[in-house]
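Q: I'm writing up a methods section and want to include an example of the input and output format. Could you take the sequence below and give the corresponding predicted structure tokens, formatted cleanly so I can copy it straight into the document?
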Amino acid sequence: MKMKKVMSLVLALSMVLSLTACGGSSAETAAPAETKEEAPAAEEAAPAEEAAPAEEAAATGADVAGKTVVFIPKVTGNAFFEAANDGAQKYAADWGITVDYQGSATAGVADQVQVINNAVASGADAICISTVDAAGVRDALLEAKEAGLAVCTWDSDAQSDARALMVSQGTPEILGQMLVDMSVDALTKRGVDPAKDEVKYVWHYSQATVTDQNSWQVAGEKIIAEKYPNWTKVADNYYSNQDAEQAVSTGAAILDAYSDIDLIICNDSTALPGQLKAAQNKGLTKDDITITGFATPMAIKEYCDAGVLYEWGLWDCGIQGALGCYLAAYLAAGNEVKVGDVISVPGIGDCEVMANDCLTEGDTTGDTNNGVVLLPERVVFDETNVNNYNF
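A: Here is the clean output for your methods example:
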């Protein structure tokens, strides 16, 4: 397939989240005050016709147009994954690729394996998946690769030999630190001294097999042990399997078992609203207990407005989903990349391929078509900026 030049879109200066270049891992987490005026809703993106001059066009490799990518979430019906699909569909129309969003309302390994197998049988060109269990889907992904499909991951990784590129929201250290920082800030706002007072806490998220959330929890625990030895983890991690009803019942069980708990960290977009709902059902507010974690702004807005939490965070899942699909189509088109290469993604920006050990210490990286691309921005949401977002 012959190479072509694709004109980069002009990015609106105000689009901190929605149109940000992807290279580098050193970007700071944006604080609420910093993002209030800088991150408008997704529909304010610069129109496609505002293209850069021809002399600024960047080579992007073989044409991705016409490729079909099966886009697989952990679970359908969840605000995070639906927003990611919205972003992927929006960009896919500009790129001329087909994004086929397929998943299950149950976050199960068997369901994901079936979707992977269906993708192979359908003649798709590529797969982009957020795994519920890296080991559980490994064989199916290896078979998909053997059948000629390009395999990329996003949000939650597969084992690195079972995929080409992973689009990650950040390293475990970046995201573990973000979770601890939000916890500390919210505790301080309700009058607790995180450095001196005893803080009883626990983690509530999806599953013990989910790669991304477990890595953030492990990194967060390391930070807590080093900086806040006065904190006490009252129980092993609680899991609610990305089931909305179970997230509420699990959240209630935590509150029943530990009536004096100070902090619940929910590094999962289903667990966080479920935990907040459980607290609200018991009449608790942000001044009684600190609950924080990761979820879309609109999924948590009602609890923010009701005064159940001070702050929470995330990244632009629409950009993440779109980028994962583009990279899958890019590889399916016959392009090869290696660590250190920069891929110019129309409408998003330049993305550097990094080694796999930026996510998992000691992990090896293949010579070609294997590595990690990081999103550079994360955002803390609160009552001052939540209405600036529409996902």
